[in-house]
TrEMBL record:
One of its GO terms (biological process) is cytokinin-activated signaling pathway. Histidine-containing phosphotransfer domain (HPt) contains an active histidine that mediates the phosphotransfer. Its main location: cytoplasm. Functions as a two-component phosphorelay mediators between cytokinin sensor histidine kinases and response regulators (B-type ARRs). Plays an important role in propagating cytokinin signal transduction through the multistep His-to-Asp phosphorelay. Functions as a positive regulator of the cytokinin signaling pathway. May play a regulatory role in salt and drought tolerance during plant development. Residues 44-86 form the HPt domain. Keywords: Cytokinin signaling pathway, Cytoplasm, Nucleus, Two-component regulatory system. It comes from Musa troglodytarum (fe'i banana). Pfam families: Hpt. This is Histidine-containing phosphotransfer protein. GO terms for cellular component: cytosol; nucleus. It is found in: Cytoplasm, Cytosol; Nucleus. It comes from the Eukaryota.
Length: 126
């Protein structure tokens, strides 16, 4: 497929993600950090965040599947996930907030509240 056609398909995908609310205007700033010396920067940042998040969500699922939930461990993973979404704000000039990690952070805040309440149903809803 010609390069122009691939770029057009990428633009259509990105625009649809904007319309769905998965991306916001700040995503464009993340794209601006990518240059010829780091052509895969955006993909790398998103991939690292997704891999790290997937690992933590897998652990959270295992913990919540237990008959007796250890809310301190759950809270520790939620705290780590929240930190992952926030930490990159400072390290990469906030790129994860550009790809919806602000929503991850907000969900983690609510999740932590459910942990403090030992509310398994609330944790599972998130």
């Amino acid at each position: 497929m010609p390069l122009m056609a691939l770029r057009e398909r990428l633009n259509v995908l990105v625009n649809s993600m904007f319309l769905e609310g998965l991306l916001d205007q700040q995503f464009r700033q993340l794209q601006m950090l990518q240059d010829a010396s780091s052509p895969g920067f955006v993909a790398e940042v998103i991939t690292l965040f997704c891999e790290d998040s997937e690992r933590m969500l897998t652990e959270l699922t295992k913990l919540l599947d237990q008959a007796v939930v250890d809310y301190q461990k759950v809270d520790a993973y939620v705290h780590q996930l929240k930190g992952s979404s926030s930490r990159c704000l400072y390290f990469f000039f906030a790129p994860f907030f550009y790809v919806g990690a602000q929503n991850v952070k907000l969900a983690c805040i609510q999740f932590k509240q459910f942990c403090e309440e030992n509310n398994k149903e609330g944790c599972e809803v998130l």
